[in-house]
Amino acid sequence: MASTLSCSAADLLPLLGPAANASAAAEFICGRFEAVSNKFVDTGFALDTTYLLFSTYLVFAMQLGFAMLCAGSVRAKNTMNIMLTNVLDAAAGGFFYYTFGFAFAFGSPSNGFIGQHFFGLSKFPSPSFDYSYFLFQWAFAIAAAGITSGSIAERTQFIAYLVYSSFLTGLVYPIVSHWFWSSNGWASPGRSENLLFGSGVIDFAGSGVVHLVGGVAGLCGALIEGPRIGRFDDSGRAVTMRGHSGTLVVLGTFLLWFGWYGFNPGSFVNILKSYNGSGSYYGQWSAVGRTAVTTTLAGCTAALTTLFGRRLLVGHWNVTDVCNGLLGGFAAITGGCSVVDPWAAVVCGFVAAWVLIGCNKLAEKLHYDDPLEAAQLHGGCGSWGIIFTGLFAKKAYVEEVYPGHPGRPYGLFMGGGGRLLAANTVQILVIVAWVSVTMGTLFLILHKLQLLRITPEEETEGMDLTSHGGHAYTLADVLDAQKQAAAAAV
User: Which tens digit of pLDDT belongs to each residue from 403-452?
Assistant: First the structure.
């Protein structure tokens, strides 16, 4: 926020002449001027807060998108279960992010590893943070948990969802966000000194912080649980297990697309900021618009590339593949959306589509089962997005979005050298290591305590019937009753 305009009675007095009441008039005028100036400052804060809250609501709407996408991607007998887990990702995440998570992420002043203040939002609001900023960051935290829930769908005990979601949003994710987004984080581009490789990691809206974290956590859980019953036949060949509703998949995809306009552009946090001095048509509002454009182009390009790429590979047009490709493009552009040109976003989306296709092929060969392709989509495409930023970040945009360090490194392909790419590569390595150790250990403990995977009988019957008191759809209940009646008649 710009500083207030100043008015000095001493400076104004000579302009008023030798009148007897000149001093009083000067003080009165400056007092009125200061009042008007303060009103403009208040309006600026209100405008930025409104922008941030609106972005938060868009990001939160992505939870509905995740719920619909997950529901459509699983079989009908597990619909109630996956919907409930998505609700609890938000609810449990809200409590634990309020209690611990935000403090670990942004509790400043702190060391480079973990935050140390604002537990339970104590001493809020402060000159650094207001409540709206907490809410925005909470919406990001539960997005990471929602990614993980898709990877372990259709075979995970309900108690395991509660435990991992609380642990991820309360500890694992906040520490990662502290490293790369807090001004005190050891790899943050917002540090005042000692930047990693003279650059810090540029991960604007979270290709690594959100998507790679969620993808790696899901990968750990799915690997420890193993594939669903029937996913691979006796000879090891993959058996297609389609979700029960393409309609819900498409609905969820469009809701996520809509929410991404809060996820990426909203990460500017404020909008009322000029880059070239007041009165210019160009400012942070322009960067916000550019970010929305790069987000759109990356997703659209990835969707089209997936459409024709899968048509060449399998011989038909598949709506689920296209939806996943679209989301893969969004996950990839999230890290560099604010610092690249629109043409570069097209490159990002094109490569992201092939990364997703390649990761899915590799998953089949390794007998890895992920009902929503979450680890491949968010982990694989998120990793590409981090590398992409190190290659295509534009100098002018980097200096606008991350001011304060003239000569900061930018994209390798844009003439900025390899230091940003090196920093971003470090980000991939440390996230994979940190999440694998923490979440992998948690899932192993749950597995040893027999709290992770449901029994084969429960998996065959479906979790809606065995754990939630009935099916999500009335027709399924009717068919089940008919089966039971037929069995009793025999």
Answer: 989 899 999 999 999 999 999 999 999 999 999 999 999 999 999 999 99
Name all contacts of 397-400 with Cβ < 8 Å and 24+ positions apart: 397/287, 397/290, 397/338, 397/339, 397/340, 398/202, 398/339, 400/275, 400/287
Q: What is the pLDDT of residues 181-230, one digit of tens each?
A: 999 999 999 998 889 999 999 999 999 999 999 999 999 999 999 999 99
Whole-number Å distance between alpha carbons of 104 and 96 = 11
- Tell me, yes or no, whether 436 and 466 share the same domain: no
Specify if 239 maps to a domain. no
Question: What is the widest separation between alpha-carbon atoms in the chain?
Answer: 113
Contacts of 199 (CB under 8 A, 6+ apart): 189, 408, 409, 419, 420, 423
pLDDT (average), residues 324-334 = 98
Quote the pTM value.
0.91
- φ, ψ of residue 232 to 5 degrees: the values are -130, 135
Averaged confidence pLDDT in the chain: 91
How many domains, in total, are found in the chain?
2
Say if residues 141 and 169 touch (Cβ distance below 8 Å): yes
Question: 404 and 484 share a domain?
Answer: no
Show the domain range for 466: 454-489
459 and 375 in one domain?
A: no
Q: Which tokens sit at 396?
A: 């002018």
Which among 247, 287, 240 has a CA at the least distance from the CA of 267?
Answer: 287
Question: Is the domain of 324 the same as that of 470?
Answer: no
Q: What is the DSSP letter of 164?
A: H
| pLDDT of res. 126 | 84
Q: Is 129 left (phi over 0), alpha (psi -120 to 50) or beta?
A: beta
Q: Which of 76, 73, 154 is nearest to 478 (CA)?
A: 76
Instruction: Please check whether residue 152 lies inside any domain of the structure.
Output: yes
